[in-house]
Amino acid sequence: MTSDAFAARLRDVADAIEQRLDALLPHGDLISDAMRHGVLGGGKRLRGFLVVETAALFGVSEVTALNTAAAVECLHAYSLVHDDLPCMDDDDLRRGRPTVHRKWDEATGVLAGDALQTIAFEILARPDTHSNAQARIGLVMALAKASGQAGMVGGQAMDIAAETAGSPLNLDEISLLQSLKTGALIRFSCEAGAILGGNADARPHLAAYADALGLAFQIRDDLLDVEGDEDAAGKALNKDAAAGKATFVSLLGIEQARQKAADLIDTAIVNLSRQSLSSPMLEQAARFALTRQT
Amino acid sequence: MTSDAFAARLRDVADAIEQRLDALLPHGDLISDAMRHGVLGGGKRLRGFLVVETAALFGVSEVTALNTAAAVECLHAYSLVHDDLPCMDDDDLRRGRPTVHRKWDEATGVLAGDALQTIAFEILARPDTHSNAQARIGLVMALAKASGQAGMVGGQAMDIAAETAGSPLNLDEISLLQSLKTGALIRFSCEAGAILGGNADARPHLAAYADALGLAFQIRDDLLDVEGDEDAAGKALNKDAAAGKATFVSLLGIEQARQKAADLIDTAIVNLSRQSLSSPMLEQAARFALTRQT
């Protein structure tokens, strides 16, 4: 599989997820418009892609995989809409467009985020997502763990606390923060395939792949924050350095951060193939996390 | 059943729900503390009570009923924590104590509310809530409908839009707003018994009871806002009149509002007993909605 073929597949899956989102989201009122602004029209859909490709390992049907991918992207978008609020990271731009609270107002940002979290669970619970209620409730349980106080919310709270305290985190603390704030949903996205396929044995191996991928993804984010192109990113860069925040790059230096990310990706790929979960797409997804420019 | 016996039962159920919440909520960090502040130590637990009493109609086990009641109270608390934020209703007091964003800060209010919504779904999905995955996924689906853009979030958005526009709503609009903002979760609480009991036939009748009860409950709220005791309520009163907001009382007058609430409760009780869903507790709960002082 060439990286061009991978890029084409990533785009195709992103288009298919976009269409599912468009069909699943409500429309015709302010909150629906704000939800759509928050989730449609942007992003690489890497989380959704991981759902689709891990689901493919177990022969899961397309509508099941795409609904689950759409749910993950709604949950991800909810976290971005709330993290962008003035009382949190106070961001004006996201994917090159005004953030929800800048386009409308703060109340709309809070409520649209709230409704995006709700619809993520609603999509997972829909009978047309999977005929098996056990699989659907397994997804709900796993997404709740990724999303709540012991997952993304906990990570965001750690991040804000560190910024307020003004004492930069060390490497262990940054790793924990990242595993909650970014890693938890990437882990869910990879476990989703095993949950949908009813394959409990594969789940820990996909989780291990996801944890290495998630950490490498975050290190690449920190590298792009220092080296990246603001226009291509569609958001403000260099924010962490300007705020004096510790990142993998500030703690390790550029070269060592690059090496750590590369090592993580090797581990992820070797672990996966050793478990007979070999997938060219998941291999390329791991390499992409390392080389992406946005 | 005397109203004293009802009051004692309401207190006992509230105590049991409080114990379940204490056991189910996380602890040991800022977000956990804020979640606990938002949901523990207060409230009549009327929504949880409705879950417990409708579940009792179908012989549902106590742990199933109490977990579901705890989930409803977490969802209710999430909506209060977010509605209290400065960008929404900007309230300093709730149940006689500082609101979450006043005790901590806005970011903590947003995140604790987010995590309370998440944990509501997590509790419903837990295997120990019900042995039947179909019942659990049915609860998740119904709670998502009550909570999201077509439910509570939609109602709160209507409320804010009306306030911003400065043109008071008419009776039909107020009724719609209330059916979303308050009614949807009361309806879920009553339907929960039928979902847990696997009794699809009873569900619409419990929903009809809930809709009448919910509307009467809101009318009573509007009456208490005009006539109530601020110390007993534990929150600021007369806010709606001061803000020039339309309420059932401003539109109907005190006497007609009282009469409408009383008629609704009669309809709710008659409808219930006609369907052989007779429950002295649910009858008294309806009467309580009409006569409560806080």
Automatic annotation (TrEMBL), chains A, B:
Cofactor(s) this protein requires: Mg(2+)
PANTHER family with a match to the protein in the record: FARNESYL DIPHOSPHATE SYNTHASE (PTHR43281)
Enzyme Commission code: 2.5.1.29
Gene3D superfamilies noted in UniProt: Farnesyl Diphosphate Synthase (1.10.600.10)
Enzyme superclass (EC): transferase
Record GO biological process: carotenoid biosynthetic process; chlorophyll biosynthetic process; photosynthesis
Record field: transmembrane: none
Organism ancestry: Bacteria, Pseudomonadati, Pseudomonadota, Alphaproteobacteria, Rhodobacterales
An example Gene Ontology CC term for this record: cytoplasm
Domain of life: Bacteria
Protein name, entry field: Geranylgeranyl diphosphate synthase
InterPro entries the record matches: Isoprenoid_synthase_dom_sf, Polyprenyl_synt, Polyprenyl_synt_CS, Prenyl_diphosphate_synthase
Alphabetical list of SUPFAM superfamilies matching this protein: Terpenoid synthases
Pfam family, one: polyprenyl_synt
Keywords assigned: Carotenoid biosynthesis, Chlorophyll biosynthesis, Isoprene biosynthesis, Magnesium, Metal-binding, Photosynthesis, Transferase
Family: Belongs to the FPP/GGPP synthase family.
Pathway named in the protein's UniProt entry: Isoprenoid biosynthesis; geranylgeranyl diphosphate biosynthesis; geranylgeranyl diphosphate from farnesyl diphosphate and isopentenyl diphosphate: step 1/1
UniProt GO MF annotations: geranylgeranyl diphosphate synthase activity; metal ion binding
Known role: Catalyzes the condensation of farnesyl diphosphate (FPP) and isopentenyl diphosphate (IPP) to yield geranylgeranyl diphosphate (GGPP) needed for biosynthesis of carotenoids and diterpenes.
